[in-house]
Amino acid sequence: MKLNIKHTFTNELPADSVLDNYTRQVKEACYSFVNPIQTKAPKLIHVSEDMASNLGISQKDYTSDLFLKVFSGNEILPNAKPYAMCYGGHQFGHWAGQLGDGRAINLLEVEHQNKQWTIQLKGAGKTPYSRTADGLAVLRSSIREYLCSEAMYHLGVPTTRALSLALTGDEVLRDMLYDGNSAYEKGAIVSRVAPSFLRFGNYEIFAARQDHKTLKTLVDFTIKHHFPNLGKPSKTTYISFFAEVAKRTLNMIIHWQRVGFVHGVMNTDNMSVLGLTIDYGPYGWLEGFDYGWTPNTTDSQHKRYRYGNQPNIGLWNLYQLANALYPLIEEAEPLEAILEQYKTDFETTSLAMMKSKLGLYDYDEKDALLIQELENCLLLTETDMTIFFRNLSSFKKGNASKGLQIVKDAFYVPTEVSDSIAQQWKDWFERYGFRLDKETMSDADRQLKMNAVNPKYVLRNYMAQLAIDDANKGDFKLIDELFQLLKHPYEEQPKSEKWFAKRPDWARHKVGCSMLSCSS
Ligand code: AMP
Ligand code: MG
Is 97 touching ligand 1 by the criterion CB < 6 Å? Predict the structure, then answer.
């Protein structure tokens, strides 16, 4: 395995001078050197070939013993210097102080085909940022991150990626529902990959400590390596940097809304400065369309991170980043203007995204209203988001009376579709049909375009749970089956039609399917 290893982050940014691995506050440093722990009986479960080839890792490499050792943290390549990053964050609306990579260790920085990648191990043991926790990860949450991050990539959603999933052979104690019932679970490690894992919290921590020198060093580093087209460091460049982060954050969230992904824990330490979906924890996929839904039971009281609130939270998080960057800019107006712009851009991009889901391309001043009316209809009775939009593409101009028939599979309880609900749907389909008559595109072309934005296959919560249940019994076949399926989420895959189905009834209230906590 010949990797083109780099040390940009550690060469250019200040390190913690303490080398011992114990919990502490780390000041005036962006990271601490730390090695992963040895695991008892590492076993590779899955490798993303696609990601491996991006890194210059061949099939021969990833089937070798060395690969398993390196990506389970048991061997450190001669030229590698693993480290954990220091960051802080606002959790559920409150400043939480120093958090940091408590169970993520940056293993390698690799350059391949002119692209920079950082590879992290998640669950490879304690770091100076582990606080009171163990630095480990369990199999269920590792499967969820592994499958979902790769699925998101193939859906076209900006995201961190995954390279490998391995069992550690160690047992990990978890109180899954935070209800006093702790149990041992299988330990696992995901190696995940991104151009950078820098988060809003990486900047916030230095601003909170009024360490403006390290703040500037880190911002300059970020711009130089990840936003080089913005130019040399200056106040103007810092402002453009913030504008670019705001733009990418909004873009990412609009994609989440399009596919029905709910992140679950949009704390500022879980917001990538590159606008990538990061830290797959108690995330979930909308089944019934519902703006108020969150999969995260830890957030069930206030539902701060519910589906419909994600765009607002993106903005709230950007306010925190603006505050963190302010000491370098010392002018509020340009930052405020960018935050205002986010709101306007949200309106336009959200409308454009929804229009694309409906197959509307020409301008019509009443489109926002038509979409609003559709959302009202979707809430009348539990309606599966994925099935509804996918089936909507079969609608034919001049055939509004068939509308309800086309989408009927999306209703969870068909008997709930009373005469009055059916009438509201029929009225909506009439308006939709009338609106489509104004579009120049043919039915067939519209269907093709709609099917490219409305996925047929997503990682429904119960699907991940089935793979987890099997894996806990030592059977990893379903992990591979779902992995392969989700590589082509927009294509018809007749042999996999069973995954284009509503959530089964047993999963409605099952832990792991509709209820997840931050325990992972
Ligand atoms: P999260 O809610 O997963 O984004 O985690 C918030 C903070 O807690 C981050 O600093 C994590 O690194 C840390 N953390 C979460 N789980 C663990 C764990 N098992 N061991 C050590 N640190 C953890
Ligand atoms: Mg996190």
Answer: no
